[in-house]
Amino acid sequence: MQAASKFLYKGSLSYLCIQIHDKMVNCPPFKSIIPIQVRFNDVDVLGHVSNTVYQNYYDAGKLHYFEEVLPDMDYISKGVIAASVKIDYLKPIFMKTRILVETHVTHIGNKSLTMEHQLVEEFSGEILSTCTVVLVCFDFKTQKSIPLPEAWKKQIMIYDTDVLVKTE
């Protein structure tokens, strides 16, 4: 019997997985991970990142996710727009904090999807903030919501294997 071993995935302790017999277990659902550089102008007079900046970090995570999963989304003819955003601020982020944005899709509906993000301290894996966003598929020419293309749903389900899909 092969012993279990732990390893670091993509530099994030939040991705600590256990390998047993060529299978990965206890792996968090976040596959899309990008580092974020805290900039001088992100920090407010209290010395921590202003709450108004967090959405920019999450938007970077969203863009990275879609570049990985749906690289053909053009945002000219059709794309997604935010219908709801909820951010929880769990711990302050300071100027020299090294953070990662981790992103995944949790739910797919007919015209919308739910995306979750978290800001994580790169070396400790501590979760500093979480964000849940409902994104609606949108036709920019007609200015109306439209059903999510089946090809998009399939690509998301391949990438995020634990996504819940609403069936009619």
Describe this structure in words.
The chain has helices at 54-69, 150-159; strands spanning 5-9, 12-20, 23-25, 32-36, 78-89, 99-108, 112-121, 127-139, 144-145, 164-165. The chain is of the alpha+beta class and 168 residues long. Strands 4, 5, 6, 7, 8, 9 and 10 form a 7-stranded mixed beta sheet that branches. A hairpin with a 3-residue loop joins β6 (99-108) and β7. The N and C termini lie far apart (45 Å).
Question: Any chance you could write out the topology, listing elements then pairs?
Answer:
Blueprint lengths: L4 E5 L2 E9 L2 E3 L6 E5 L17 H16 L8 E12 L9 E10 L3 E10 L5 E13 L4 E2 L4 H10 L4 E2 L3
Parallel strand pairs: 6-10
Antiparallel strand pairs: 1-2, 2-3, 4-6, 5-8, 6-7, 7-8, 8-9
Helix content: 10-25%
For the terminal residues, how far apart are their CA atoms?
Answer: 45 Å
SS strand fraction: 35-45%
What structural class should be given to the helix and strand makeup? Answer: alpha+beta
